[in-house]
């Protein structure tokens, strides 16, 4: 980079565009990704020079940028072409909320607007802390976030974190740390077994069709499907790791969870259950480890135990729920049956 701060910047993803606008540094932008939609005026103010994994290199070079801002290993080929052409490039590669905040501060430093960037980042940090505090101690709906539908892909790191901040509990938190989408592929049966209370879907720009989600074989057993709690969150709000996710995206998640969270808050506390009757007797036969075939569970109790979250499917015989499926007792069930007893290690 021969000029500092750079006067001509090309942004190949949305989050840096939005950040520069929020910093009041938008006049430096001379080219943007075709997916840039925030703020709304960017569509008419800035020429488009790229998709996500492809770019018009001659068009970028014709803009004579001092700096090009890119994101992720998926743009490595574009970056290599630009570097070979002598262009200065800064590549971001963050996948969590801390990375979003660091990106804001870094963009500020690159355009000599550190103080403005620090103020912006601190504002988001305060907002996240306030929302997390408001959710603390309240019931947490179990959330499955679907980033893609063919195959099923669960939510990436910052999405999982924002679900938690908004008051939910990601049913696949262990997958959220995986940067690559291929490492977050989940089996339909795994979602059924996870029994989410709410399904949030954002199919990378493709329109979400809740009826298609609900019609998947066996998914009628999922509480979110049974209670019609399938909510689309628009991709520009949540799938770009930038300011929009920390503001509008977080608000959209909280709005989607609020009806159930409020209902659970208002509901009278349930008595300890199952502690008596046939449900307790049946539950005592279900193992904590391994599994028992569904045919050995009283059919009148099976659905009730699943809905209450006292058992879960761990061995699936075919795509639809079957009496040959295997079931296992959940930690919550063990705690209800044997209060005060610590699990063996």
Automatic annotation (TrEMBL):
| Stretches assigned to the Fe/B12 periplasmic-binding domain | 8-261
One Pfam family name is Peripla_BP_2
* Classification via PANTHER family: BLL4160 PROTEIN, VITAMIN B12-BINDING PROTEIN
Protein name, as recorded: ABC-type transporter, periplasmic subunit
């Amino acid at each position: 980079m021969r000029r500092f701060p750079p006067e001509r910047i090309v942004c190949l993803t949305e989050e840096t565009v939005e950040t520069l606008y929020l910093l009041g540094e938008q006049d430096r932008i001379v080219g943007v990704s075709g997916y840039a939609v925030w703020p709304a005026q960017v569509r008419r103010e800035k020429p488009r020079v790229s998709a996500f994994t492809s770019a018009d290199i001659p068009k970028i070079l014709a803009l004579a940028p001092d700096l090009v801002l890119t994101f992720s290993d998926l743009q490595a080929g574009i970056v290599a072409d630009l570097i070979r052409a002598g262009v200065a490039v800064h590549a971001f590669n963050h996948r969590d909320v801390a990375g979003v905040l660091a990106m804001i501060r870094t963009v500020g430093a690159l355009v000599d607007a550190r103080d403005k960037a620090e103020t912006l980042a601190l504002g988001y940090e305060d907002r996240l802390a306030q929302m997390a505090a408001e959710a603390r101690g309240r019931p947490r709906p179990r959330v499955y976030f679907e980033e893609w539908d063919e195959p099923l892909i669960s939510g990436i790191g910052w999405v999982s974190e924002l679900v938690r901040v908004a008051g939910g509990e990601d049913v696949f938190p262990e997958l959220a740390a995986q940067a690559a989408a291929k490492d977050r592929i989940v089996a339909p049966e795994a979602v059924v077994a996870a029994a989410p209370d709410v399904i949030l879907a954002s199919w990378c720009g493709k329109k979400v069709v809740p009826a298609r989600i609900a019609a998947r074989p066996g998914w009628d057993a999922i509480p979110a499907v049974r209670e019609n709690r399938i909510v689309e969150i628009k991709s520009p709000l949540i799938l770009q790791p930038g300011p929009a996710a920390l503001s509008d995206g977080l608000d959209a998640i909280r709005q989607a969870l609020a009806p159930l969270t409020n209902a659970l808050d208002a509901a009278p506390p349930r008595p300890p259950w199952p502690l008596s009757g046939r449900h307790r007797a049946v539950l005592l036969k279900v193992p904590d480890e391994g599994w028992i075939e569904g045919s050995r569970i009283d059919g009148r109790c099976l659905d009730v135990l699943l809905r209450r979250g006292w058992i879960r499917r761990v061995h699936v015989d075919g795509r639809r729920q079957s009496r040959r499926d295997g079931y296992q007792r959940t930690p919550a069930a063990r705690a209800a049956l044997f209060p005060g007893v610590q699990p063996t290690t």
